[in-house]
Amino acid sequence: MRARASVRIPTVFVIDPDPATGRLIQGFLQETTLPCQTFGSGREFLAAYQEGQPGCLVLETLIPDMSGLQIQRRLAAGNSLLPLIFVTSRMDVSTAVELMRQGVVHVLEKPVRPVDLHGAIHEAIALDAERRRQQGEQQKMRLHVAGLTRKERQVLQLVGEGKSVKAMASELGVCVRAIELRRRSLMAKLELESPLDLMRFSVGVRQIFVEHPKHDGWRLSPPAPAWPHGDVIALREPA
Predict the structure, then answer these.
(1) CB 156 within 8 A of CB 217
(2) Where do the CATH 3.40.50.2300 domains begin and end in the chain?
């Protein structure tokens, strides 16, 4: 009998030098099915975390061995998709400015209200799932386009530019019939049903491919994270 493929359950990772914080968050999560792993330092977390594990990271901005920003940068360098939730007992201006540069930032301040923590964690888990879904779609696009010929990529690129069949033929120096045949081959390989579907695919693929001059067609660009890791989820308590 074949073994079932393992399904990774989203996990809430917590980095905080104060063990009480980890116990507090674990208590908050008892009503959910989300597992929780706590770490006393950034290095401990980075050594244990395996890229690809879904969930979110709740961390203090000030950790003895490395700052929250340093952990964020380390994760970003590894193209991590893990959303971050910053929790702090105090926030200096320079750190706040740096976080704001990374995206829309608020901070969840201690003592943390359970309702705010629950909301932030569930939003982060949903964001992580959406990121991974989109990453999967992008990977499918990359694999599809990798199987195209140079001539098919040329047509795909021109379709994305909104060119008509006649304009494509003129630009590539071939007859209209040749363009129609390439477009038909494209749609078959990409499993698309209509020219409109081909247009949508072409527009979507622009985000993950690099255009080369002289209509050499799209080539695979180096893999990049689907989102800047500045998408920090956080909340600030009313003053």
Answers:
(1) yes
(2) 11-135
Topology adopted by domain 11-135 = Rossmann fold (3.40.50)
- pTM of the shown model: 0.70
Q: Compute CA distances 38 → 3, 27, 76, 183, whole Å.
A: 30, 12, 21, 53
List, for residues 177-222, the tens digit of each pLDDT value.
999 999 998 899 888 888 889 988 888 887 666 544 433 444 444 4
Backbone angle region of 47, left / alpha / beta, with phi > 0 → left and psi within -120 to 50 → alpha: alpha
Amino acid at 34: L
Question: Could you name the CATH architecture of 147-206?
Answer: Orthogonal Bundle (1.10)
Decide the pairing of beta strands 55-60 and 11-15.
parallel
As beta bridge partners, residue 218 has 211
Report cis status (omega within 30 of 0) of the bond before 228.
Answer: no
CA nearest to 87, candidates 53, 54, 121, 55:
121
State the DSSP code for 31: G
Report the distance separating Cα 33 and Cα 9, nearest Å.
9
162 burial type by CB count under 10 A (0-12 exposed, 13-18 middle, 19+ buried): exposed
Q: What is the pLDDT of residues 213-224, one digit of tens each?
A: 433 444 444 443
> CATH 1.10.10.10 region(s) of the chain?
147-206
